[in-house]
């Protein structure tokens, strides 16, 4: 992934990238559920 002149390499290569994507999806779902419970 490139942002301008800087290149970002996810930790662990492809597997790390998949884990980061999965973690972000799970985190967003959990946050959505928590917000709904609070409201």
Tell me about this structure.
By secondary structure, this protein is mostly helical. 67% of the residues lie in helices and 10% in strands. The chain is built from one helix and two strands; from the N terminus they run ββα. A two-stranded antiparallel sheet has the order 1-2. A hairpin with a 2-residue loop joins strand 1 and strand 2. The termini are far apart.
Strand order in the sheet with the most strands: 1-2
Strand percent estimate: 5-15%
Biggest β-sheet, characterized?
2 strands, antiparallel
With helices defined by DSSP (H or I, 4 residues minimum), what is the helix count? 1
The proportion of residues forming helix, as a percent range, comes to: 55-70%
- Ends apart, CA distance between termini: 37 Å
Order of SSEs: EEH
Shape: elongated
How many strand segments? 2
Strand-pairing-aware structural class: mainly alpha
- Overall mean confidence score, pLDDT: 82
Which residue ranges are poorly predicted, with pLDDT under 50 across at least 5 consecutive positions?
Answer: none
Task: Evaluate the radius of gyration.
Answer: 14 Å
Keywords: Membrane, Transmembrane, Transmembrane helix
Transmembrane segments: 12-38
């Amino acid at each position: 992934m490139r942002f301008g002149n800087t290149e970002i390499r996810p930790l662990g290569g492809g597997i790390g990238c998949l884990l980061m994507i999965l973690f972000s999806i799970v985190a967003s779902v959990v946050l959505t559920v928590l917000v709904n419970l609070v409201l």
